[in-house]
Amino acid sequence: MTENRQLTPYDHIGEEAAIRSLVERFYFYMDTLPEAAGIRAMHAADLSSAHDKLFKFLSGWLGGPDLFVQEYGHPRLRQRHFPFAIDAAARDQWMLCMTKALDEVSMAANFRENLSQALQQLATHMINQDE
């Protein structure tokens, strides 16, 4: 890191190792929590591709290497999620897993809260089904 570069959320979270840990814990919860069964059912039996894509997306989204864009192009998250029926319940299940995962990654409390709020907004933006 150069002296003149401002720190990004990627730096604050702990860079690659922390994002890998966050994604690992997120999918652990998705795969094991009964309350996340609905969101889990939207994924393939093998979560490795989803795991890889989320890691690459979060890396760039948080200001680190733009791995997702380099491999897949612009994220177009909403468009990429259109094939899945995402309602508020699915969003809440996704956030349950993410919140639990965030709680396991060491970071300042105010940064965790800001990151959680940003992810909540992002997850809400993915909703494509009425209740």
From TrEMBL:
Pfam families linked to this entry: Bac_globin (PF01152)
Q: Name one GO molecular function term.
A: oxygen binding
Q: Which UniProt keywords apply?
A: Heme, Iron, Metal-binding, Transport
Annotated signal sequence is none
The record's listing under Gene3D superfamilies reads: Globins (1.10.490.10)
> Would you identify the family this protein belongs to, as annotated?
Belongs to the truncated hemoglobin family. Group II subfamily.
| PANTHER family given in the database record | TWO-ON-TWO HEMOGLOBIN-3
State the protein's name.
Globin
